[in-house]
Amino acid sequence: MRKAFQRILTFHWLTTFLLMGVFSFLGALASVNIFVMLDANVRFLSAHGAMAVMEGALTQLGQLLASGLFALAMYLGFKACERVLVEKILEK
């Protein structure tokens, strides 16, 4: 999988640039969603306590953590694209 990702990143600078944009957009979208949902989740838990836990607030908190890992993966993809593009620029 690593080799396939590396081939995609180094195929052409334009594909790398477009992929970088996709990673950036998805990472930003996931990050904004995390902050909005986390705020609502914490308010719900603090206002309703055990009743919120029974209604699935802890499950939602776990999903928010998974979303955070997804945002981190998107950031790492963005940084990989950035490195490839900078290396291509510095070669010439």
Please give a structural write-up.
The protein is an all-alpha fold and 92 residues long. The chain contains 4 helices and no strands. It has helices spanning 2-11, 13-48, 50-54, 57-91. Helix 2 packs antiparallel against helix 4 (57-91). It is elongated, with a radius of gyration of 18 Å. The relative contact order is 0.16.
Counting helices, strands and paired strands, the structural category is mainly alpha
Helix content: over 70%
Alpha carbon gyration radius: 18 Å
Give the number of DSSP strands: 0
Q: Could you tell me how far the N terminus lies from the C terminus, measured between alpha carbons in angstroms? A: 29 Å
Mean pLDDT: 87
Order of helices and strands: HHHH
Strand content: under 5%
Outline type: elongated
Map the helices and strands.
Blueprint: H1 2-11, H2 13-48, H3 50-54, H4 57-91
Quick structural overview:
The protein is mainly α.
Annotation keywords:
mainly alpha, 4 helices, 92 residues, 0% strand, single chain, 93% helix, elongated
